[in-house]
Design brief:
By secondary structure, the chain is mostly beta strands. The chain has a domain at 14-72: SH3 type barrels (Roll), CATH 2.30.30. The protein has strands at 14-17, 23-31, 37-44, 50-56, 60-62, 64-65, 68-72. A 5-stranded antiparallel beta sheet has the order 4-3-2-1-5, with no helix packed on it. The chain has a two-stranded antiparallel ribbon with strand order 6-7. Strand 3 and strand 4 (50-56) form a beta hairpin.
């Protein structure tokens, strides 16, 4: 019987890299045979360059919406036509 992998973070979810405090977007998820779960994160490094690296799940924290504690934040490059952002 096959069970789908369950991941703590969703694709496009914003996460904070624990060791550096940098924030990035989850681009890929991986579950290894060793039981380790990792995520490929695209983020802007302290030197201003774009970086894309794999991090273990334990090294990441979810970014939460300040107005709605507990709600995750997702990356979006462009809003769909007609969409409006309100505070």
């Amino acid at each position: 019987m096959c069970f789908p992998a369950k991941f703590k973070f969703d694709l496009r979810q914003m996460v904070e890299i624990g060791i550096s405090g940098e924030i990035g977007e989850v681009k890929a998820q991986g579950k290894w045979a060793t039981g380790n779960t990792a995520y490929q994160v695209l983020y802007q490094a302290a030197n201003g360059t774009a970086q894309e690296r794999w991090f273990d799940e334990v090294d990441l924290d979810a970014v939460e919406d300040d107005h709605y504690p507990g709600c995750p934040v997702y990356g979006q490059r462009e809003l769909p036509p007609g969409a409006v952002v309100t505070e």
